[in-house]
Every structure is written in structure tokens, then in C-alpha cells.
């Protein structure tokens, strides 16, 4: 498995993380080790085995759709670093072309 | 000092007027202050704990956990209190609701004394990955207490609280219990609601109990377990009859020679467990070796699946609805990236990156699906073992508590320390760490006992019996 700058760039974009140059080298070395480590599973023949998707045998646990444990707008905004009295605030998403 | 022994004994003393909830809280607060340098608590709710104790002392009707002083790991929500998962990204976050487990504790008269230090988001085995600094081992300050529920174990060991709630995704309750010399239970998957537990690996996470003895664990489990409208993976029935019987019972017990003779294990741990097996046989228990040839695949399977789940679970930390904002940026994507880059610690980022890799297009089947298939094999093999046996006994860890910094340099060395505990999380079975051994270095270590399915009742009954020997 080739762990190169392109892979690190792709994974950090997908996971919304930023690394500086020194950190990039470090995470690259870590990923080489970690991927090498989990590659161990390739030794096992698992053909025909159903992947285990759920830990509990009880699927589709349903309940009545009652309104409870609701948050007020004030509560929902309480932990936001940037907000006004009604909305979460974020940087501009769509910019006018210069 | 109230010299706490057990919930039962404490309740007897309250009934006879020898002590009070207020005295108990004061005693815990005194010890928290005395052992402050161990860094077990991130925040202590001192004043409100005293107030609650006074209120409880005035009550006629007493709950099952009346006046029991409980600490909670800093990844379990308690309404109107801060919770951070020991991460910078949740600095200043105040919980808007309580975890179901916490609500149930409070309904039975418990007193929550504070939130305890842990590895960031539960990711670590030494408690060194905390934004608030490491927790120290209670007996040797140059060593780690184990993680990730390290603060929770140290607090119980030193009498700063009577019981702690921790969480166990791959051994995070059992490992610190082992290193610190107390009892730590990871219930079976679905036994305790995860509502209000900050998610790491949702198909692995389980709230666990750290206590001085098995009887206390049983009482607390009885209170916090059971179905919950807010967690569809919580099982529809609670384990019933968690009372211990004093009758000696005979069981069929398995052990894995591949584990006890593992190349990574401290020979002294291996010898003491073998001696323990002989002791069990002498007691008339049927103990047999069972081969477990998937041993070397357990940890890689665990790390593929938990990092995948973590990369997904931790995507919610965007610094917008909550969490830390690193300040102004050009656009939305760099805003997310900057918040997350500043908020998460190194180990958390490492795991998010590996998890993103195993889930990414082109690698998904080779890693993620493959690991789910191996998990199926582990699950099926374990079921077969429990057709023939009541319990599996095993070590918790290959070594005693490591020195600070010893394991944290190399992530793989750290991951391999989880080899004997992640098995129970991969297969969803309950497992407990019992403080039965002493190493020549004078540090404690434990014995792990696991049971099949949702057999917490028989597991607690059997381990209570073992601790009476």
C-alpha cells in the first residue's frame, strides 16, 4: 500500500483536517505503520462469510413518535461559538465572483 | 473519613445513624483535594454535591443508591454540567440533557461528585491522551493508571468517590481497573443505554462500572441497565436477578492457551494466571483449554472497525453548532478544517485518518467489509465456545501499568496492549476485571472473566464467589 502525499491530501480533505508540513510527514509515517498492521487480515480467507453489520439481533426497534426531550431554540444555540438570537453563524458559503 | 467499604455496609451505617450522606460527600471531597496531583477529576461539583447530600439526608424514602457518591467519566452527559470527552474541541460545552444512565442513578438517590479525566474521546489505553494532562497511577506516580477511564479508576481506588461510571470501547474500563486494583465491568452490548454517552465506536461503546467490589457493581448495573426509548440498540429486557447467592456453584470455564502464552505477555502474569487455573480446578471447577486461532487478527479487526466508526461519529464536530471555533476563515470548508485541526488531539486525528482510509472508495471492501467478516467469524466462534462453557478467563493486559511515556510514542505498541480486552467488544459479551493478583513490583493486576450473551447475572454471581475466596 503506497502512502504518499496525494493519499494524505485526499484523506485530510475527506476528514476535514489540516496538517502542516511536519505533521504531514508524521501522519504519513503513522499511516504506513497502521495500514501495514491492519493488512494482517489479508491472510484470512473470508470468502462467503456475511459481514457482521449489527451487534444486536433486535432490528427495527420502534416506538411511538411522541414529542419529548425537545430543545428550545435558545438551548440549541447555547453552545454555538458564533450565533445571534435566531441562527448559527458561519463564514460565507457562496461568494460573489470578483 | 467515613472509611467506605460497600454500598450495603454504608447504607447500614446511615440507617443506624453512624454516618450521613453529608459526611460521605465531605470525606470524598477531602480525598479529592488530598490526591489532587493524581489529576483524576477534570471538574468537581463540590457545592452542589453537599447540597444534594443535605437534601438526601432529609428524605424519608431512600433509593437503591441513596447517598452513593459517584463520579462520571468526562464523556457521559449530565444536564447543565460541562462535558468535554477530555478534548479541546468541546471546551466550554455544557450538556443540555443527562445520559439515561445518569438519570437512573439520580432517580435512585445517587450524588454525582464530578467529571473524571480520560483519554480524548476514549481513544487511548494510558490516559495520556487528555487535553487536561495525564492522570497518574495511584500507587506509583511515574506510571499510568490505564485508560481510557483512568480518572474513574483512580478516583474509586483512592476513595474520591464510591463508584464511577466509565465507558469501554476496547477495554477502557477493564484496563484501568486492572492496573489500579479495583473491579471494572463492561456490560454486554445493549445492556446499558448509550444515550448521552459521547460516541466513539457505536457498535463497541458501552457504559461500564468501576467499583471496590462485585456487589456494588451488581447494584449499580441493576439501576442503570434496561431498555431506553432513546437508544434503539438498548436491549428490550434488563439482566434480571443481579443479587449474589452465597451458594457455591460449579461452572465450566474455558481459557485460551494462545493468550496465556502470548509472546507479548509478562511471564509473571502468565504464571499467576496458570496458578489461578489450578486453584479453580482444586475448588472443583471444570477448567479447559480452548484453542483460539484468530488471536492475532483481533486487534487489527478492532482498529479497522472502531476507527471507521470514529471517523463517522466525530464528523459532527464542526465548530458551528457547538465545539470550539478557531476563528475567522475565508470559506466554510477551511472553517471546518481549521476548527477540527485545532480542536482534536494527535491520536484522535490519527484514528480519524485511518478510519477515513478504510471507508474510502477503492479500499472499503478490502478493509472495512473484510474486518466485518472477521468480526462475524469471531462472533460465531465465541457463540460456539459459550455453548460448551459458562465463562472464559483471561488476562486483561500483557503487562502491569506502563511508565508514563512508555507506550505513547508508538501507536502500534499502544494498540497491542488492548489485545485481550477488545475481544469482548468485538463480540458484544460482558467481561469484568477482578483485582486478584499482585506483581513482584508490588503493583496490582487483574483477572478477566467473560460470559456469553447477556449473562451479566451469572458473571457477577460467579465473580462475587471468586472474590470471597
In short:
The complex is a heterodimer of chains A (98) and B (469). Chain A is an all-alpha fold and 98 residues long. Chain A has helices at 5-14, 21-38, 73-78.
Describe the 3D structure:
The complex is a heterodimer of chains A (98) and B (469). Chain A has 98 residues and is an all-alpha fold. The longest helix of chain A has 18 residues, at 21-38. Chain A has a domain at 5-41: Histone, subunit A, CATH 1.10.20. Chain A contains three helices and no strands. By secondary structure, chain B is an alpha/beta fold. Chain B has one domain (1-469): Amidase signature (AS) enzymes (Alpha-Beta Complex). Chain B is built from 16 helices and eleven strands. Chain B has an eleven-stranded mixed sheet with strand order 1-3-2-4-6-5-10-11-9-7-8, with helices on both faces. In chain B, a hairpin with a 5-residue loop joins strand 10 (431-438) and strand 11. In chain B, helix 2 runs antiparallel to helix 3 and helix 10 (298-313) packs across helix 12 (346-359). Chain B is globular. The mean pLDDT of chain B is 95. At the A-B interface, helix 1, helix 2 and helix 3 of A face helix 10, helix 11, helix 12, helix 13 and helix 14 of B. Chain A: InterPro entries: Asp/Glu-ADT_sf_sub_c, GatC. Chain A: It catalyses: L-glutamyl-tRNA(Gln) + L-glutamine + ATP + H2O = L-glutaminyl-tRNA(Gln) + L-glutamate + ADP + phosphate + H(+); L-aspartyl-tRNA(Asn) + L-glutamine + ATP + H2O = L-asparaginyl-tRNA(Asn) + L-glutamate + ADP + phosphate + 2 H(+).
Topology:
The complex is a heterodimer of chains A (98) and B (469).
Chain A: H1 5-14, H2 21-38, H3 73-78
Chain B: H1 7-15, H2 21-34, E1 41-44, H3 46-57, E2 69-73, H4 100-107, E3 111-116, H5 150-157, E4 163-167, H6 174-180, E5 183-186, E6 207-211, H7 214-224, E7 252-255, H8 257-260, H9 267-282, E8 286-289, H10 298-313, H11 332-343, H12 346-359, H13 364-388, E9 391-395, H14 411-416, H15 422-427, E10 431-438, E11 444-451, H16 456-468
Parallel strand pairs in B: 2-3, 2-4, 7-8, 7-9
Antiparallel strand pairs in B: 1-3, 4-6, 5-6, 5-10, 9-11, 10-11
Helix pairs in contact in B: 2-3, 7-16, 10-12, 10-13
Domain Amidase (chain B): 25-460
Keywords (chain B): ATP-binding, Ligase, Nucleotide-binding, Protein biosynthesis, Transferase
Protein name (chain B): Glutamyl-tRNA(Gln) amidotransferase subunit A
Amino acid at each position: 500500500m503506497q502512502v504518499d502525499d496525494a493519499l494524505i491530501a485526499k484523506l485530510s480533505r475527506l476528514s476535514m483536517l489540516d496538517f502542516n508540513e511536519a505533521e504531514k510527514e508524521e501522519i504519513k509515517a503513522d499511516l504506513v505503520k497502521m495500514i501495514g498492521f491492519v493488512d494482517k487480515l489479508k491472510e484470512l480467507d473470508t470468502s462467503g462469510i456475511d459481514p457482521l453489520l449489527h451487534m444486536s439481533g433486535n432490528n427495527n426497534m420502534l416506538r411511538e413518535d411522541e414529542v419529548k426531550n425537545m430543545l428550545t431554540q435558545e438551548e440549541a444555540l447555547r453552545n454555538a461559538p458564533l450565533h445571534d438570537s435566531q441562527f448559527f453563524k458561519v463564514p460565507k458559503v457562496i461568494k460573489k465572483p470578483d | 473519613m467515613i472509611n467506605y467499604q460497600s454500598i450495603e455496609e454504608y447504607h447500614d451505617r446511615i440507617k443506624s445513624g453512624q454516618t450521613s450522606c453529608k459526611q460521605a460527600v465531605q470525606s470524598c471531597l477531602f480525598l479529592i483535594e488530598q490526591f489532587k496531583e493524581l489529576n483524576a477529576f477534570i471538574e468537581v461539583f463540590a457545592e452542589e454535591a453537599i447540597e444534594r447530600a443535605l437534601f438526601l439526608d432529609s428524605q424519608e424514602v431512600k433509593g437503591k443508591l441513596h447517598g452513593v457518591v459517584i463520579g462520571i467519566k468526562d464523556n457521559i452527559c449530565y444536564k447543565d454540567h460541562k462535558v468535554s470527552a477530555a478534548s479541546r474541541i468541546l471546551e466550554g460545552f455544557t450538556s443540555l440533557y443527562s445520559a439515561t444512565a445518569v438519570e437512573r442513578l439520580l432517580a435512585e438517590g445517587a450524588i454525582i461528585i464530578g467529571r473524571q479525566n480520560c483519554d480524548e474521546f476514549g481513544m487511548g489505553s494510558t490516559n495520556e491522551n487528555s487535553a487536561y494532562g495525564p492522570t497518574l497511577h495511584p500507587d506509583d506516580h511515574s506510571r499510568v493508571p490505564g485508560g481510557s477511564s483512568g480518572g474513574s479508576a483512580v478516583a474509586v481506588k483512592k476513595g474520591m468517590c464510591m463508584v464511577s461510571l466509565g465507558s469501554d470501547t476496547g477495554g477502557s474500563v477493564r484496563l484501568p481497573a486492572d492496573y489500579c486494583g479495583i473491579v471494572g465491568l463492561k456490560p454486554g452490548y445493549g445492556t446499558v443505554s448509550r444515550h448521552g454517552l459521547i460516541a466513539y465506536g457505536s457498535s463497541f461503546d458501552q457504559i461500564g462500572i468501576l467499583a471496590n467490589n462485585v456487589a456494588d457493581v451488581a447494584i449499580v448495573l441493576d439501576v442503570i441497565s434496561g431498555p431506553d426509548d432513546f437508544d434503539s440498540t438498548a436491549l428490550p429486557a434488563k439482566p434480571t436477578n443481579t443479587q449474589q447467592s452465597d451458594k457455591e456453584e460449579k461452572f465450566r470455564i474455558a481459557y485460551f492457551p494462545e493468550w496465556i502464552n502470548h509472546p507479548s505477555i509478562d511471564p509473571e502474569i502468565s504464571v499467576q494466571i496458570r496458578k489461578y487455573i489450578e486453584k479453580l480446578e482444586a475448588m472443583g471447577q471444570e477448567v479447559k483449554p480452548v484453542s483460539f486461532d484468530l488471536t492475532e487478527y483481533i486487534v487489527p479487526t478492532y482498529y479497522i472497525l472502531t476507527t471507521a466508526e470514529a471517523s463517522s461519529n466525530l464528523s459532527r464536530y464542526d465548530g458551528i453548532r457547538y465545539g470550539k471555533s478557531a476563528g475567522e476563515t475565508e470559506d466554510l470548508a477551511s472553517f471546518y478544517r481549521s476548527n477540527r485541526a485545532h480542536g482534536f488531539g494527535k491520536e484522535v486525528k490519527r484514528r480519524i485518518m485511518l478510519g477515513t482510509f478504510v471507508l474510502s472508495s477503492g479500499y472499503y471492501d478490502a478493509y472495512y467489509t473484510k474486518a466485518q467478516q472477521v468480526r462475524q467469524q469471531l462472533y460465531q466462534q465465541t457463540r460456539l465456545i459459550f455453548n460448551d462453557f459458562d465463562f472464559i478467563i483471561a488476562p486483561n493486559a500483557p503487562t502491569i501499568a506502563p511508565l508514563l511515556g512508555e507506550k505513547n510514542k508508538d501507536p502500534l505498541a499502544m494498540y497491542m496492549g488492548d489485545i485481550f480486552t477488545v475481544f469482548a467488544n468485538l463480540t458484544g459479551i460482558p467481561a469484568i476485571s477482578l483485582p486478584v493478583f499482585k506483581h513482584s513490583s508490588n503493583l496490582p493486576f487483574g483477572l478477566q472473566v467473560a460470559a456469553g450473551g447477556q449473562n451479566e447475572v451469572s458473571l457477577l454471581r460467579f465473580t462475587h464467589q471468586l472474590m470471597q475466596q
